[in-house]
Amino acid sequence: MRYWKWLLPCLVLLVMRSSLSQVAPEIRRGVYKGREVQFPHDARQFRGWRHYGRNLPVWKVSEELPKDVFTFARLCYPFRRGLRWTADYPEAELNFSWRLHQLTSVQVNPFPVIIDIDAGQLRHHPFLYVSEPSNMDISDEQARVLREYMLNGGFILMDDFWGGEEWQAFVATFKQIWPDRGFTELKPDHPLFHCVFDLPAPPQVHSNVYWSHKHKGTRNTTSNEIRPDAAQPVFRAVHDDRGRMVMLICLNNDMGDGWEQESFDTDYFREVSEKHAYPLGINIVFYVLTH
After folding, report:
1. Confidence class of residue 23 from pLDDT cuts 50, 70 and 90?
2. Considering the domain 65-289 in this protein, what is its CATH number?
C-alpha cells in the first residue's frame, strides 16, 4: 500500500505501558433500540449489530514485555440519546489496532477495551478514544475524574462530530472538564501533522456514506457533513502546564469511519482510509506518546 513506506524507523522506540488485564468487566451490557447488547472482552465476538471484523487475526505480543503495548481504549460515557459512544464500534478499534501492528514496530494489544469514567480503570490506559463527544452528558464528578486523568499523564482523542451546532453541544462538557483552561487550534505546520507521515494539509476524513454520495453524484443524506460550517477540518488541542498535549479535538472529522469502513469500497480505502484516516491516526499516536 502507498504511504506506509514513509513510516519512520523511530516507531521502534515507541513504548507505552498499558495493562493487558481487564479492569473493566469482561462482559458489559447496554440497551440499543430497545434490546440488550453485550460487549464481550474480545470485540471480534461482538453480536450487537452488523459486524465485519470477526475474522481479523489475533497476534502475539512480546512474552518478555507483555504490558509494554498500545491498547486502543474507548470511553463509555453517559449520553443524551442513542448509544453514541459506540459509533463505529467494533471495526474502528479492531482495524486500527491491526494496521498499527501490521505496519509499524509498535507492540499493539490485539484486544481493544472499553473503559468507564472510573479512575481505577483509566489509570491502566494512557490513550483514550471518544466518539461523537457532542452527545456526552457527564456529571461534574465525572468531569473531574477525566480532568485528573489527563493532568496525571493521560490523553483523550475526541473524534466524529461536525459543524457549529455539534460543537456548541460539546462546549458545556468541555467547560465542565476544563473550567479554567482553554484550547489552541493546531496550524498546518504543527509537528503532529508531520511526525511520521508528512501530511500536505490537516486531513478531513469523511464517512463512507458522504463519500459514496459525493462520488456517485447522488443526493447526500449526511446532513451533519454537508453543513457550511463543517467544510474545513479543525483540530483543537488542550495542553497541561508543562505544554504536553492532553486532549485533541478533531472537529469536522470522522477518523473512526475511515478505520471502520476500510473495506466498504476499494476507492474509499485508497482515497480516505489509506490517505487520511490511518496516517492521521498513526501520527496522533506517535506524537502524543513521544511528547
Report:
1. very low
2. 3.40.50.12140
